[in-house]
Amino acid sequence: EAAAGPAIRRLADWSAADLTELADEYGTPLYVTDLDRVRENATRLQSAFPDADVRYAVKAHTGRAVLETVRDAGLGAECASAGEVVRALDAGYDEVQYTAVMPPAEDLDIVLDRWRDGADLTVVAGAGDTVTRLRDRGFDGRLAIRVDPGVGAGHHEKVTTGGHAKFGVPYDRAAELVNDARADFDVVGIHAHAGSGISGDDLAAHRELVSRMGDLARSVGPLEFVDVGGGFGVPYHEDEPPLDLEAVAEATRESLGDVDAELAIEPGRYVVADAGVLLTRVNTVKAVDDAGATGKVPVVAGVDAGMTTLLRPAMYDAYHAIRNLTDERPARPVTVAGPVCETSDLFCEERSMPAPRRGDLLAIGNAGAYGYEMASTYNSRPRPAEIVLAGEEARIARERETIDDVTALEVER
Ligand code: LLP
């Protein structure tokens, strides 16, 4: 079994020389994903939750090499769409969970085709209406009911799912739905998810969610599993402590109490976040006129990655550590800005860091989760390439898109 490694890999732990070599060879912007680190994170989760079924939320990073690495580490797969289900099955997962969120008809059709072909699928329905649509399509397989636990948590309100009417059936109606569904389906579990980016401060909310799920499980009788969701956070600030996974595991066990079912969790970010960095090259440097409060002249550094490459800062005001791999210079307030014509296209604003020069290479940390996955082609900007590292080997996992790729679906009249 692979060693689980330290609880967090900081940006400073990456070799500047190795990353620079990769950027020189493959160009920028470039995602670099370390598969050994993915395996360590997966292993650490399993040792913290030894008797739980750990299902990787593939939405955090669906690259084939990552999926295979996580599968080899023994985790299952949790999917949010037909596309993710197809990817997980193609990557060789033998048990796949499909957590249907407002499922488009085509998603249900594709997933149920796979089920008819013999795939071992569990469908999680978050609405009575979804159960009806599954029944209408002749599905009578493994079903779980997603519940709104009435309590949520997360790094931003945009990713706090618990307590929002969009997700799950109201807690008070869940037992009835489970019992009704038993007539037509093999009801194997109940499911809830608090949100994404849960920190040590959110432990009380996590306990509350788990204890409500324990109560529900006891009230509906035997189930195969109680899935209490994912959301385990990782530190994005370099001085933030890592989540105490053992404490979370202990709180989970304690709050769940005795239930006639296996515990299931579905973390995404925790598995891949610190296994990835984004490399980007400085192309423009300009000094701002006013010295400002610090007495140091702020600098705006333009880079070739933007909100189309890594959306999190623009979308959630998310903090990502940034390291200049080229040179260490005296710190000054630096704004790192992408090439997209939106003011939100910034990786940081007046952050104290060594002033970059044109040509410098910057590394952006914790880019492994929800990085490439949320990339877009806005501004007709091709999506970046991705390199995966395994031991001493580096290989291309996703080719850089070209402008021809971006326009390929355009239909001329
Ligand atoms: N299970 C369900 C039902 C989920 O909706 C999610 C995430 C997860 C598991 C995995 O959560 P994780 O362990 O990765 O926190 N794009 C956002 C995060 C969105 C999360 C959506 N759902 C971000 O970049 O912060």
**Name of the CATH superfamily of the largest domain:** Alanine racemase
Parts with pLDDT < 50 across at least 5 consecutive residues: none
Total domain modules: 2
Radius of gyration, whole Å: 22 Å
Number of helices: 12
Residues in helices, as a percent range? 25-40%
Largest sheet, in brief, is: 9 strands, mixed
**What top-tier CATH class of the largest domain fits best?**
Alpha Beta
* Beta-strand percentage range: 15-25%
Determine the CATH topology of the largest domain. TIM Barrel
Overall strand count: 18
Give the ligands present. Answer: ligand LLP
H and E string: HEHEHEHEHEHEEHEHEHEHEEHEEEEEEH
- Global geometry: globular
